[in-house]
Amino acid sequence: MTTLHLRVGFMPLVDAALLVAAADSGIAQAHGLSLELVREVSWSNLRDRLHVRLLDAAHMLAPAAIASTLGIGGVTAPMAAPILLNLNGNALTVSARRFEEMARVANGDLADPVVSAQALATLVSARKASGLPPLAFAAVFGFSCHTYLLRDWMALGGVRLGEDVRLEIVPPVRTVEALASGEVDGFCAGAPWNTLAVEAGVGAILHCGVDLMPDCLEKVLAWRADDVERRSEAVARLNAALIEASHWASDEANWPSLARLLAAPDRLAAPAALIEAILRGEIVQGGGRPIRRVPSYIRFDAAAIHPDPAHADLLLAAMARAGQVVVTPNLIERARAVFVPLALEAATG
Amino acid sequence: MANLRILIVDANQVRATIIEEGLREAGYEQLIRISATTGLVAAIEANDPDVVVIDLEDPSRDALADMFLVSRHVRRPITMFVDQSDSASIEAAVEAGVSAYIVDGLKKERMQAILQTCISRFNAFRKLREELDEARSQLDDRKTIDRAKGIVMRLKGLSEDEAYALMRRTAMNEKRKLVDIARSLITAAEMLK
Asked: N or C: which end of chain B has fewer CB within 10 A?
């Protein structure tokens, strides 16, 4: 079997775990791949480099893969996801100062998203009344579950994201800095950035993604749609490697090793102990609260990586609620085509 | 043409200067340069450009990409410039490492000219940097060879020319580069110290 060389782009996030495990633990090699991971600075870059084939595949936000396929917000670059990379993994963090303010006005337990959203609403109207500038929250990309999580959470308290609260787009690596400097009052991002904000003493985690949207499809492995058929051998090998990586990464015994691989300077460049705690679902919350155990905080298991066209319906609905698309039958059909379970079945069968 | 306002976002001052000169030569006069990867949205609001040219490696590109969605606080919506019918120019731009965003309504032809200028300037900058890197590594090679030559002179009691000739002959015999022979000599000398 001739070794195939593949370049795959990723963003420094814990949900790049299956790619990192496959590339750095010898799994990819065993599947006839020399897997080169390229760290990128923006989702736009990943999309554009994939489109012009400077990358063979990319770690991609599921809604961004749909938006790119439909041509919303730039190039129409149809993508296909023959495999998913994870479910969940996000959290909503507010600055230490806003957390204190929310705790003061909360009518009940802040762990309840309705209570926290109402506390936010109280802050928003108090600021309006005293002529203070509106609060700003960050998501990591416009087309992302982070945007939808923020939006849907705020809606529980009657707060409109983008109107009552400003929405800023801040790349994951800059979230902690943006929170510390006061540029934003809160953010929704993937691991490990929420934990890093708590550890740095600048933020408190309000909710984990699973509190608001259980089994949320977060990242996919995106290929150019036309390459999935044209390069079926490469797709099948990478799928097989990622399935094996999923078995490996789902075994608790391997979490210390996985955390060490992810911690490397050219991967996440974050402390291994902190990453391992995230894999265990032991979440430091900050704000004087104890460590919280969150089962399924982030999922890499076999059931979590199987693409299903039904994912497209849920994501399109969230995109429509955020005013990003007007859903039509044609749109649904094109979005469903992003999730191609056939290739995965061929690889496993 | 001169009435188009172009915002250049590049943390690399040298490259930004090269792009600015290129656009100026092409007849664009209203050029604004910023290097900040933060506060880009604010800079766009303040300067109200028609075109934004940005380094592909700038992390704030994702924020720019979103401006057309949350354009409530932006006067004019901005979208990434892509001529869908011209995939070669998309490729050229991504490979060169530049991306352009335009406000609604600007003519495609006018934008193509700006993008072409930026692509060629980005490529010119890259070539310049590669040449510089090469010159640097040649200089490093030179230093390594001189050091090895000194070792040979000392250990074998040879003159400078003789030491150099011996190294060259060894390199030719072994079909290796002179600098590789020099490196081996230095390593060996350090081991035997």
From this structure: C
Q: Do A52 and B84 touch (CB under 8 A)?
A: no
Say yes or no: A173 and A238 in one domain.
no
CATH classification (class only), B132-191 = mainly alpha
With CA atoms as reference, report the closest residue to A67 among A78, A53, A82, A52: A78
- At the second CATH level, the architecture of B5-131 is 3-Layer(aba) Sandwich (3.40)
A169 and B80 within 8 Å at the Cβ level: the answer is no
Cα(B47)–Cα(B31) distance, integer angstroms: 10
**How large is the ipTM?**
0.80
Give per-residue pLDDT as tens, A63-110: 999 999 998 877 789 999 999 999 999 999 999 999 999 999 999 999
Q: Is B58 on the interface with A (CB under 8 A)?
A: yes
Q: Is the peptide bond before A192 cis (omega within 30 degrees of 0)?
A: yes
- Tens-digit pLDDT profile for residues A176-197: 999 999 999 999 999 999 999 9
Question: Residue A113, by phi and psi: left (phi above 0), alpha (psi -120 to 50) or beta?
Answer: alpha
Work out the minimum CA distance from B143 to partner chain A, whole angstroms: 31
Do the chains contact at B82 and A174, CB–CB below 8 Å?
no
- The parent domain of residue A131 ranges over 90-212
Residues of chain B with CATH 3.40.190: 5-131
DSSP readout, A50-98?
Answer: HHTTSSSEEEEEHHHHHHHHHTTTS----EEEEEE--EE-EEEEEEHHH
Q: Of A18, A11, A37, A53, whose CA–CA distance to A144 is shortest? A: A11
Q: Are residues A222 and A333 in the same domain?
A: yes
Cα A101 to Cα A149: distance, rounded to the nearest angstrom: 21
